[in-house]
Specification:
OB fold (Dihydrolipoamide Acetyltransferase, E2P); 3 domains; six-stranded mixed β-sheet; four-stranded antiparallel β-sheet; 10 helices; disordered C terminus
Length: 315
Amino acid sequence: MTDDIAIITRSMRIQSTRSSKLQGPHRSSRFIRDLLALPIHEETVRRVLVKHHLERSALPPLKPIQRFEAKEPNDLWQIDIQGKVRFPLLGDLLLILVKDDHSRFLLAGRWFFHQYKINVFMVLHQAFLHWGLPKAILSDKGSQFKASSLHGEAEYQYLLRRLEIEPIYGRKPRTKGKLENQFRFAQRDFVPENLHHSQLEDLNAAWSQWVEWYNWQHRHKGLHGECPADRYVRSLRKPPPEDLELLLIHEEPRKVMRDGCISYYGQTYRIPDEHIGRRVWTVLKGETLRIEYGKEVIAHYRVKTDYLQLRTNDS
């Protein structure tokens, strides 16, 4: 081993005066071994370079991985849908969540049985009403957020365009890393303590309390020990309430079935019998579902969420 090191050191000193290829600090152990035709392993060469302080001493360090962060609150929000989580008494649920990129402040979120677009709009409606409007929202390219056709426009895209919010679509999974980490943390911290709920409304009430704790009391490592609320301020961009409500109203036709009900995103709603066989209009505004025939309101409901309970009662 001593002879090998001596050979390397002597060869480097001799060859460095003869070959410009060996001059300068940007030399790898493999490159030196091959150029000098040394009959030893490149790791031995590396140890010699380290010992004599010749190991790329002037080489600029590799560019560190940059974690993107919006400069100010409400510059960028993120929205995403977590994959299904199993609750023993409720079944598989998913979480739709909106988060401020700069502060990690949780703006709105709820657990649902399905990832229908109307559920996405409910969560956005809650976020806009309480916290105002952001400059941009980052999401994936799911059908809830982006039209599949190059020439089409999803309702989500139309909504953001009307509100002058820029839609941004992540090209790689790590683009939404903050929300992915948030989902993992919620699954470790919130879910185990709330597996006993048998009603979706109770679970979401517990979730609201957890969000309150997270925003105002949780010391976030990514914020150097600060709480999200320490860095978040409400947006000054707020549209007139009537405009916001108008944009978040969703109208769709439904046919009244023979049993006097309509089906609306996995739920059934009773309609007066005289409308059996007719086509009616459903108007969703927030969590209120209005059913109209002509210009007359014929039924009025709060949107149902406890799908499993409904199914059990029907059976």
